[in-house]
């Protein structure tokens, strides 16, 4: 059947759902239910993570072909099938999702006290949707998972969020939904043109050049909102600020990657001509995003909002890299997405640590934290450095590769992207300075406890990952090199066919 | 014997009469027994419908094919679920009378005749047999001013629609010389041009049927009637008769008027567009959940008509699949509405659902599934309903319809989300009374269907496909 000998991807996708069903069946006292729900969710997500390590070990890095494939008929009348598989582009995102989910569950261990059962169910369903989205090789299935994410996330923000949670939840849902329905129309149009929704089959299909721009923009509407790109990024700061810590982690860590992944999976290979034609447009939006949101981040008073804006800037780097159409740029974009997933997730967890103790995210309410919480300050500093792309941390290889790639397309774009690095250093260091250094102006902060054992367990894997990605990035880039090369080769081939057709 | 084809209708009619007599004779309240007997009769009719052969009867007035089987089963299911919802409600409202189930049975016979009609006269008879019990049902809570108003309003506007239908039918008869669907189809396919009189007739017929399915611009009665009528009656109104009327519209337009598609297509396109937009925007400001559902049903009908406007095998299949899914998710939603009762008093405000996620997690979960489904969020059934309508729409190049359809579903997502928001994000205002067993059964059934349809879509698709082949083949 596949390299694992059993339907690994189906298992990964639906095991969290089974965990959710088990939690749903738990009955009894509120306390016992909460504790059972926590442990069941943790164990489920850990088992899923361990299973996903099989992907890490037995993934064949030398080929760009889809691996661990599973295929069943689902709606044969319409040419829609149940088709799962991973290639170099998607495999690490699956691992990112499986790795972050148990950490999120641990992070919510004590901070979520009301409706624990529902919370854990929502998180496990969310994990199913995320994994399912990355492993789907059928467009309709992809769409189902892509949209299905909205349901648990809407509830997580709306039920366990902060003061303006309702507004944020609505905004998140409606923005994404609006983009997605347009993508649905594009998917249907592609289905109609090609007679199938199978992604590998579609990659061999040449979408008529006349159609490409409109389909491109329909996909763009969905992915740009999800990434999010300027000017449709405004849902993100609201959603991040209001979501509970773990919700922000998943949002920044995985959900934003769905947009970048969509560009790589659909826009580039299926619509090569339109992607090439509109690359300058994407560059313009991305550079604006990088510079503008960095400046906005400088002015923030709320820690989460600051990191949210920094996410928009970092994702701007990703979209620049994606549309450079060269090996460095694309690998940089992929690496940046992974590193941003780890680093911004970790930063939100850092904010969560302070928020759990002080119940405020306002920067001015802190100061001199390094003297009170030394261990925390070290951890926070590491992730701050990773966020400003200090060499040796996870943030560096991605941004560097993207800038190199962008230089090949246009030095101006590279300049814009590197501005982001400089501004990034400014707002992150300014944030760190205001929180960790200086005099202890708020005396009650002295009573704060440093990292607990649980928090150390949460941060340890993230620290290891951040350093590993920074010091030896090849163990990650080797996963996607072959797939990126194949993608580019196909892109070039498609463009030259179109060029020949244009000449004749 | 060809009359055997109509055995389901005949059996149901005889059962209704027997039950009526059996209900009248005892001196005590017989509503429970009568409801049970009526459910049995519906079950019997459903079984006979499944078993009946295909063919036409009564001089070509009546046709039984896989299309009629599909739609009749939906109508019967809608009626049965509606009856189950009414059982407990009527007792608590003090309107438990044995006539109620019998009226539902009679309306069901009307629906079945409509679905099987193969002649404009049979169509009219079926429609009237459906409508008259519905008028009474709307005003069934006769001491309530709102219910009486609803019944009267529905009666006046319904009669107007019937008049329009008769006028249209007579015009068509006058210009084509027949009322039989098969012969009408032959006449139109042979004719070179379509005379203006026929076009006017068709438009009148469409207008009358649009009234029955409450499509814009013939929707004005819907919110008032939905709000005023007792909730289980509204549940029934919003489900089974709609299915029957959509079936009728589909059969009429695809069958006898199939060759005049150029004349009616633009009308349906316009009605569909207006309904989708109206359903989305008008519901935004509603505070009464029954009015909300009224506008929501208008929007869903707009989506259904998109499939009809597109036509062809896949378009009509979309209509059928959408109707089937709509029927169940709608009845499920109304099951929740029926259970909205605190201290014995029925509630209708959206805000009354506040905190349902805590006070009754099971019902809140079901309601959330229905709301997400109506908004068209995958993997709920409603998404697939929309998908099967959008697929042919784009295939045939109806871009405007498709784009307006999805955008209006984004707008409507706002008010569906509001229900979820009220249930899950707001603080509880107190628990509802224990929900009746029948409501729980309906909730569980429709909830499972809506939530898990994606696992087994093939049987519904296959049934809808063969149903469509039946009418297109006949046309």
In short:
Chain B: Keywords: Cell membrane, Membrane, NAD, Oxidoreductase, Quinone, Translocase, Transmembrane, Transmembrane helix, Transport, Ubiquinone. The complex is a heterodimer of chains A (504) and B (475). With 504 residues, chain A is mainly alpha-helical.
Helix-strand blueprint:
The complex is a heterodimer of chains A (504) and B (475).
Chain A: H1 8-25, H2 30-58, E1 67-75, E2 80-86, H3 88-107, H4 116-135, H5 139-148, H6 150-160, H7 165-194, H8 199-203, H9 212-226, H10 235-242, H11 245-270, H12 272-298, H13 303-322, H14 327-358, H15 369-372, H16 374-387, H17 395-409, H18 411-436, H19 453-471, H20 474-503
Antiparallel strand pairs in A: 1-2
Chain B: H1 7-24, H2 31-51, E1 55-57, E2 62-64, H3 66-93, H4 99-116, H5 120-138, H6 145-176, H7 181-190, H8 196-212, H9 221-228, H10 231-254, H11 261-282, H12 289-310, H13 312-338, E3 341-342, E4 345-346, H14 356-359, H15 361-375, H16 381-395, H17 399-424, H18 437-452, H19 458-474
Antiparallel strand pairs in B: 1-2, 3-4
Helix pairs in contact in B: 1-2, 1-4, 2-3, 2-4, 3-4, 3-10, 3-13, 3-19, 4-5, 4-10, 5-6, 5-10, 6-8, 6-9, 8-10, 8-11, 9-10, 9-12, 10-12, 10-13, 11-12, 11-17, 12-13, 12-16, 12-17, 13-15, 13-16, 13-18, 13-19, 15-17, 15-18
List keywords for this structure.
heterodimer, A: 504 residues, mainly alpha, B: two-stranded antiparallel ribbon, two-stranded antiparallel ribbon
């Amino acid at each position: 059947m596949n390299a694992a000998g059993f339907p690994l991807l189906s298992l990964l996708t639906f095991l969290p759902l089974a965990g959710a069903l088990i939690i749903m069946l738990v009955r009894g006292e509120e306390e016992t239910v909460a504790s059972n729900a926590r442990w069941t969710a943790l164990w489920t997500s850990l088992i899923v993570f361990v299973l996903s390590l099989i992907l890490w070990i037995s993934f064949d890095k030398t080929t760009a072909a889809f691996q661990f494939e599973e295929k069943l008929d689902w709606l044969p009348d319409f040419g829609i099938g149940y088709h799962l598989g991973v290639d170099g582009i998607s495999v690490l995102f699956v691992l990112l999702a499986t790795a972050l989910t148990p950490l999120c569950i641990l992070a919510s261990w004590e901070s979520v006290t009301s409706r624990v059962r529902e919370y854990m169910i929502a998180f496990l369903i969310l994990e199913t949707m995320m994994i399912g989205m990355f492993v789907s090789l059928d467009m309709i299935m992809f769409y189902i998972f892509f949209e299905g994410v909205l349901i648990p996330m809407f509830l997580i923000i709306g039920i366990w969020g902060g003061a303006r949670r309702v507004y944020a939840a609505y905004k998140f849902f409606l923005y994404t939904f609006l983009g997605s329905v347009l993508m649905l129309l594009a998917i249907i149009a592609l289905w109609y043109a090609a007679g199938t929704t199978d992604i590998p089959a579609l990659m061999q299909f040449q979408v008529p050049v006349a159609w490409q721009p409109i389909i491109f923009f329909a996909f763009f509407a969905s992915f740009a909102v999800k990434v999010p790109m300027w000017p449709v990024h405004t849902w993100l700061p609201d959603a991040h600020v209001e979501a509970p810590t773990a919700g922000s982690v998943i949002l920044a860590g995985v959900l934003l990657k769905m947009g970048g992944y969509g560009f790589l999976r659909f826009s580039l290979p299926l619509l090569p001509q339109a992607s090439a034609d509109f690359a300058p447009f994407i560059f313009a939006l991305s550079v604006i995003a990088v510079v503008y949101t960095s400046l906005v981040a400088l002015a923030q008073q709320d820690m989460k909002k600051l990191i949210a804006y920094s996410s928009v800037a970092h994702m701007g780097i990703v979209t620049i890299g994606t549309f450079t159409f060269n090996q460095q740029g694309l690998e940089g974009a992929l690496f940046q997405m992974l590193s941003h997933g780890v680093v911004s997730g970790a930063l939100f967890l850092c904010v969560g640590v302070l928020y759990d103790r002080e119940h405020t995210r306002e920067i001015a309410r802190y100061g001199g934290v390094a003297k009170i919480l030394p261990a925390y300050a070290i951890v926070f500093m590491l992730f701050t450095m990773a966020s400003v792309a200090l060499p040796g941390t996870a943030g560096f290889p991605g941004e560097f590769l993207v800038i190199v790639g962008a230089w090949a397309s246009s030095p101006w774009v590279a300049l814009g992207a590197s501005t982001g690095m400089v501004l990034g250093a400014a707002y992150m260091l300014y944030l760190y300075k205001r929180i960790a250094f200086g005099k202890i102006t708020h005396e009650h902060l002295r009573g704060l406890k440093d990292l607990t054992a649980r928090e150390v367990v949460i941060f340890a894997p993230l620290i290891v990952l951040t350093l590993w990605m920074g010091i030896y990035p090849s163990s990650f880039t080797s996963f996607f090199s072959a797939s990126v090369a194949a993608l580019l080769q196909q892109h070039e081939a498609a463009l030259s066919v179109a060029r020949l057709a244009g000449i004749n | 014997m060809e009359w055997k084809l109509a055995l389901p209708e005949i059996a149901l009619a005889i059962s209704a009469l027997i039950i009526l007599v059996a209900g009248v004779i005892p001196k005590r309240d017989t509503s429970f027994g009568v409801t049970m007997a009526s459910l049995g009769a519906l079950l019997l009719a459903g079984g006979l419908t499944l078993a009946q052969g295909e063919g036409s009867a009564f001089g070509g007035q009546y046709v039984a094919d896989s299309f009629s089987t599909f739609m009749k089963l939906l109508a019967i299911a809608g009626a049965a679920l509606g009856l189950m919802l009414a059982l407990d409600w009527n007792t608590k409202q003090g309107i438990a009378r044995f006539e109620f189930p019998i009226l539902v049975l009679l309306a069901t016979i009307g629906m079945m005749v409509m679905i099987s009609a193969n002649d404009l006269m049979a169509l009219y008879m079926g429609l009237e047999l459906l409508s008259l019990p519905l008028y009474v049902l709307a005003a069934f809570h006769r001491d309530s001013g709102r219910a009486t108003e609803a019944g009267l309003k529905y009666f006046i506007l319904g009669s107007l629609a019937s008049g329009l239908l008769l006028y249209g039918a007579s015009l068509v008869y006058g210009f084509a010389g027949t009322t039989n669907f098969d012969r009408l189809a032959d006449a139109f396919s042979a004719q070179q041009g379509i005379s203006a009189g026929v076009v006017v007739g068709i438009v009148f017929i469409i207008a009358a049927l649009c009234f029955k399915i409450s499509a814009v611009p013939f929707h004005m009665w819907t919110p008032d009637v939905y709000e005023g009528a007792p909730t289980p009656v509204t549940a029934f109104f919003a489900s089974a008769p709609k299915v029957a009327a959509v079936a009728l519209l589909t059969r009429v337009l695809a069958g006898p008027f199939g060759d005049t598609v150029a004349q009616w297509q633009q009308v349906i396109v316009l009605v569909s567009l207006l309904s989708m937009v109206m359903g989305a925007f008008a519901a935004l400001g509603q505070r009464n959940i029954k009015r909300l559902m009224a506008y929501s049903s208008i929007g869903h009908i707009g989506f259904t008509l998109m499939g009809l406007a597109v036509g062809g095998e896949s378009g009509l299949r979309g209509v059928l699949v959408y109707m089937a899914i709509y029927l169940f998710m709608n009845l499920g939603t109304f099951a929740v509405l029926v259970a909205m009762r605190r201290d014995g008093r029925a509630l209708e405000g959206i805000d009354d659902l506040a905190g349902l996620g805590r006070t009754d997690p099971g019902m809140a979960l079901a309601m959330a599934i229905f709301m997400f489904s109506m908004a068209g969020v995958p993997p709920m059934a409603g998404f697939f309903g929309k998908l099967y309508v959008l697929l042919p729409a784009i295939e045939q190049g109806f871009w405007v319809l498709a784009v307006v359809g999805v955008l209006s579903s984004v707008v409507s997502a706002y008010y569906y989300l509001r229900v979820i928001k009220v249930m899950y994000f707001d603080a509880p205002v107190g628990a509802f009374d224990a929900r009746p067993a029948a409501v729980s059964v309906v909730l569980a059934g429709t909830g499972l269907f809506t939530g898990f349809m994606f696992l087994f879509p093939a049987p519904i698709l296959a049934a809808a496909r063969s149903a469509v082949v039946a009418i297109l083949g006949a046309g």
